[in-house]
Amino acid sequence: MTDVVLDGVHKVYTGGVTAVRNIRLRINDGELFVLLGPSGCGKSTILRMIAGLEEITEGDLWMNGGRANDLPPRDRNVAMVFQEGALYPHRTVKGNMMFPLEVSGDDRAEANARVMELARALGINTMVDRLPRTLSGGQRQRAAIGRALIREPSLFLLDEPLSSLDAGLRTELRVEISALVRSTGTTTVYVTHDQVEAMTMADRMAVLRDGVLEDVGTPEQIYED
Ligand code: ADP
Ligand code: ADP
Fold first, then answer.
1. Is the beta carbon of 131 within 6 A of some atom in ligand 2?
2. Does the beta carbon of 88 lie inside 6 Å of ligand 2?
3. Rounded to two decimals, what is the model's pTM?
4. Source organism's superkingdom (predicted)?
């Protein structure tokens, strides 16, 4: 469980591109928060700063009330899913989902039970012994989500996870992802350029344009404006 506050956050990349400026944002504990905006507006930059993968140039990041600007990624208890799941190609679905538990040295039988339970929740329990390349794009993203959630992160970050999928699958998966993260109560930040996706998934959302926050609120509040 985690809340996240960005207080006056700027990001200037080496080379001089200002990606985001003066971002003020509170993401509440247990919330499914969507960052919406066109390509290049700074969504990924914000997500990567929250994950600790990108340095914050100016301003403060707070996680659970503690200043987190300099907290190493491994101490943030975050899990991230990208557009292409980036599964380990030589590992089966189960091997991929098991990997984070092996690293932390969890009991093997318990780990196996947890993987199977989550695989069932994700609708991929009949595919756990298959290699990623033998799966559809949607199944691969389910496996990537499974690998990300297996250690029950405090904070779940998704960067355009459905943008490589066709429209039908996107609709199906956005419903499933919403249900899954809400059932676990995991604080989630979901990045997309798709307005419908944002409106249908978000508890609250932020609209970003050219590195600046234009609007923050529930989909209803944003829609009224
Ligand atoms: P989005 O996720 O909304 O597509 P990004 O956060 O990826 O936007 O990019 C925001 C801006 O920062 C863009 O102008 C992009 O070109 C620039 N940018 C992103 N990553 C880097 C980088 N590693 N080095 C320099 N500029 C970058
Ligand atoms: P194998 O032993 O058959 O090479 P592994 O399951 O060890 O298969 O790894 C499969 C792929 O995942 C390899 O390309 C490997 O580089 C990559 N990989 C394994 N562990 C990690 C890790 N901790 N971080 C990033 N990539 C990894």
1. no
2. yes
3. 0.88
4. Bacteria
